[in-house]
Amino acid sequence: MQNKETLEFAIIRLVPKVEREEFLNIGVILFSKRKKYLGIKYKIDKERIRSFASEVDTEEIKRYLEAWELICKGEPNGGKIGKFELASRFRWLVASRSTIIQSSKTHPGLCHDPEKVLEDTFKGYVL
Predict the structure, then answer these.
(1) CB within 8 A of 105, min separation 6: which ones?
(2) What is the DSSP string of 34-84?
(3) Predicted TM-score (pTM) of this structure
(4) Angstrom distance (rounded) from CA 112 to CA 121
(5) Which residues contact 22 (CB under 8 A, 6 or more apart)?
(6) Are 35 and 7 in contact (CB under 8 A)?
(7) pLDDT at residue 97, rounded to an integer
(8) How far, in Å, are 7, 83, 88, 95, 126 from residue 24 at the CA level?
């Protein structure tokens, strides 16, 4: 079996009222330099979001996260950020911001399979 490689992940949070600092975990972003992996997984649970903050436009949140997904994949329509190298894209996505979509601080880890860790982390923090 191959050696485990380092990874970093952050939890994606919906923060409807930034001034109150209340949030819902809605996704995970995971990066492994050695595995050349940058992945994102999220879920827009409309009912849960509505019960937490009825004023939130879930379609807008979905579009926002779809843009993050394009950046992760390095897609041409991911804009200028999508053209950055992998580590820079991750750093840009998890940078501190005071918008309705934020991420936690990054957390380190080790893995053989970053995609499995992304799935497990998503299940543990979001579902």
Answers:
(1) 10
(2) TTTEEEEEE---HHHHHHH-TT--HHHHHHHHHHHHHHHHT-GGGHHHHTS
(3) 0.92
(4) 14
(5) 15, 16, 52
(6) yes
(7) 87
(8) 23, 30, 26, 18, 8
Residue (of 48, 74, 75, 44) closest to 60 by Cα position: 44
Tens of pLDDT, residue by residue over 62-109, are 999 999 999 999 988 989 999 999 999 999 999 998 889 999 999 999
- Within 10 A of 71 (CB to CB), how many other CB atoms are there? 24
Our count of domains for the chain comes to 1
Question: Tokens representing 122?
Answer: 């998503």
pLDDT surpassing 60 at residue 1: no
